[in-house]
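To the wet lab folks,

You asked to see what we're planning to order before we commit. Fair enough. Below is the target structure as tokens, and below that is the sequence we designed to fit it. If anything looks off to you, flag it before the synthesis order goes out.
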């Protein structure tokens, strides 16, 4: 839990947060704390759950509601059936009624048979949850759509990977989804056989399809597969494709079939290479989150939320504008117009990520999806993104309630050594976190006692220094989940005298 009265730069530091559980009657009867910093003799406090902020599947589990893959895909409004996910007429969406939802939940609770449970759940999409014991519980506004999960790890990631085809793409789809239009123009009559004319159509589809071949394969393997497929085509179709795309091999002497293949593969990798070059060459402020310089490759690892934010707001727009913007050259006017349309569509998403005129940009973005990418099926994430506007009005700026700092806190807690025994591990994690927060507070105070300062020096000398530096970096920038804390820092034994002091 974080105190929103604190300034943003210190609000999410380790020593200023604490792990809280859901305590019964905390709102109606209050909780008596035996001692606080301002009340040494104790204080009675009342607390309540306001927003529940997490990813969409988790919110449904917490509230015992139907998942996002069901026809009840939205917890905030009455939109029903998966076929309506792509609607943008948000002014006609009505919020779900709290009283009706509670009646459905209590009907499910009071039903004795499993078949009746299943029938009611299928009809209303809600089970009973203990949260209904709270008199103020209203899922329509308390189950918040998190901007980090919905936009950065949802829309931005999906647009880059699946629509633009710049990274991995799942092979489970039976229909190939094209990343862009590739038209070679009219074939001069009498220059090719019927088989070679057919091969030109195949080459066009190969070049316009996504290059990824699975989440676990490296991008180089995808290009190798493309090279192998193109190598089985005749030289004349390959030469015609290179000439149409203005990517003829620059080679002295005889040009071989493999040269045409290499030129075509280099052409398809141009966008990704441009992004990597911009990431490598661009000078950015120190506060901007880092991005893997080998973006698009399996070796880059999983792209985190702050990295998607930097990619979608800075690197990707610059790369696409330099390739597809005004003044760029293409093989035909039709291709130039289509790539400019994809660029404009991407910039609608960029505008939504910046949260400037949010609803205007997200409406334009979702409306154009089916037109620009006709094989794409709109997912519940796109519908959920409309409701972020409502939560901005309810709770204020996103940095006060999104998941960034708490995801970092989860990462820290995951490094705590536990015995995997339920009933004991919760107490171990809580006490370990409190001890670490106490120690961190003592070591960072400017008026810290000399004995405590000496403990800080001992920690730097005895324990992993790189891990210590990472912890300090994380304290300065708690939203940067690119900072990794070494496992050895979490498992090192603390000296007994220091352990006594902490305890």
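Sequence we intend to order:
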């Amino acid at each position: 839990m974080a105190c929103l009265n604190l300034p943003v730069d210190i609000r999410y530091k380790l020593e200023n947060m604490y792990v809280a559980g859901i305590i019964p009657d905390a709102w109606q009867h209050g909780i008596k704390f035996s001692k606080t910093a301002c009340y040494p003799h104790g204080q009675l406090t009342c607390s309540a759950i306001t927003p529940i902020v997490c990813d969409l599947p988790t919110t449904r589990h917490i509230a015992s509601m139907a998942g996002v893959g069901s026809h009840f895909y939205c917890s905030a409004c009455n939109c029903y059936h998966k076929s309506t996910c792509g609607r943008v007429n948000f002014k006609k969406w009505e919020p779900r009624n709290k009283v009706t939802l509670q009646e459905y939940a209590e009907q499910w609770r009071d039903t004795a048979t499993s078949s009746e449970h299943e029938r009611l759940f299928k009809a209303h999409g809600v089970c009973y949850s203990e949260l209904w014991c709270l008199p103020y519980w209203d899922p329509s506004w308390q189950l918040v759509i998190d901007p980090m999960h919905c936009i950065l790890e949802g829309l931005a990631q999906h647009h880059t990977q699946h629509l633009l085809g710049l990274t991995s793409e799942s092979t489970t789809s039976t229909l190939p989804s094209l990343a862009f239009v590739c038209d070679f123009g009219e074939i001069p009559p009498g220059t090719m056989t019927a088989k070679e004319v057919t091969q030109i159509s195949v080459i066009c589809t190969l070049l316009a399809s996504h290059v990824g071949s699975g989440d676990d394969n490296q991008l180089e393997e995808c290009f190798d597969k493309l090279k192998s497929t193109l190598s089985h085509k005749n030289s004349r179709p390959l030469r015609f494709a290179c000439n149409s795309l203005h990517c003829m091999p620059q080679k002295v002497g005889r040009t071989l079939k493999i040269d045409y293949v290499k030129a075509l593969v280099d052409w398809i990798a141009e966008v990704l290479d441009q992004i990597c070059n911009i990431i490598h060459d661009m000078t950015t402020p120190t506060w901007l989150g880092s991005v893997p310089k080998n973006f698009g490759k399996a070796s880059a690892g999983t792209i985190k939320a702050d990295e998607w934010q930097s990619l979608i707001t800075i690197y990707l727009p610059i790369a696409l504008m330099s390739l597809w913007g005004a003044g760029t050259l293409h093989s035909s006017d039709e291709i130039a117009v289509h790539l400019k349309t994809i660029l404009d569509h991407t910039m609608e998403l960029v505008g939504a990520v910046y949260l400037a005129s949010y609803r205007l940009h997200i409406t334009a973005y979702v409306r154009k999806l089916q037109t620009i990418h006709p094989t794409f099926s709109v997912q519940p994430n796109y519908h959920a993104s409309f409701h972020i506007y409502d939560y901005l009005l309810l709770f204020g700026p996103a940095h006060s309630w999104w998941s960034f700092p708490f995801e970092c806190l989860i990462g820290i807690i995951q490094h705590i050594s536990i015995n995997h025994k339920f009933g004991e591990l919760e107490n171990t994690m809580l006490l370990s976190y409190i001890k670490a927060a106490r120690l961190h507070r003592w070591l960072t105070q400017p008026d810290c006692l000399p004995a405590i300062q000496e403990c800080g020096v001992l920690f730097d000398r005895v324990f992993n220094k790189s891990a210590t530096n990472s912890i300090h970096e994380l304290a300065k920038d708690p939203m940067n989940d690119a900072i990794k804390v070494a496992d050895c820092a979490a498992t090192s034994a603390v000296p007994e005298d220091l352990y006594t002091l902490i305890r």
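Structural context that might help your review: Confidence is low (pLDDT under 50) at residues 168-181, 463-492. The CA atoms of residues 171 and 247 lie 29 Å apart.

Thanks,
Computational group
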